[in-house]
Amino acid sequence: MDILFGSKKMGKILNSEKEIRKTYGTELGKKIKLRLGVLRAAPTLHDVSHQPPEKRHELKGDRKGRFAVNLLGGDRLIFVPHHDPLPKLADGGIDLKKVTAIKILEVEDYR
């Protein structure tokens, strides 16, 4: 899957092992690198497991349309599908089998 970044700063951090460690620490940095590897290797968002350890899930409420994968503790890697138009199912949901690009927005503990 193609990965873009919501800001230059996020791209700079997540494209450098040194910057990941500096910004998020060793343990969380390792999880971020693992999840980025899983996301890059998946042909579509549907192929990213919705079971732990990744636990890909769509967010709700004011975060509707965003997705996350688990990192460490309550930390999540938050992203959106990067398609225009967004691939939709007949019921209006997002067609995860057609999502081949995402934009990473943030790393956050939103609990």
CATH architecture: 2-Layer Sandwich
The share of residues in extended strands comes to: 15-25%
Write the element-wise H/E pattern from the N-terminal end onward.
EHHHEEEE
Number of helices: 3
Under CATH, the homologous superfamily reads RelE-like
Using the CA coordinates, give the radius of gyration.
14 Å
What is the rounded distance between the termini?
A: 27 Å
- Provide the spatial order of strands within the biggest beta sheet: 1-5-4-3-2
CATH topology: YaeB-like fold
Name of the CATH class: Alpha Beta
User: Mean pLDDT across all residues, rounded?
Assistant: 96
Topology:
Layout: E1 2-5, H1 8-14, H2 17-24, H3 26-41, E2 57-58, E3 67-70, E4 75-81, E5 101-109
Parallel strand pairs: 1-5
Antiparallel strand pairs: 2-3, 3-4, 4-5
Helix pairs in contact: 2-3
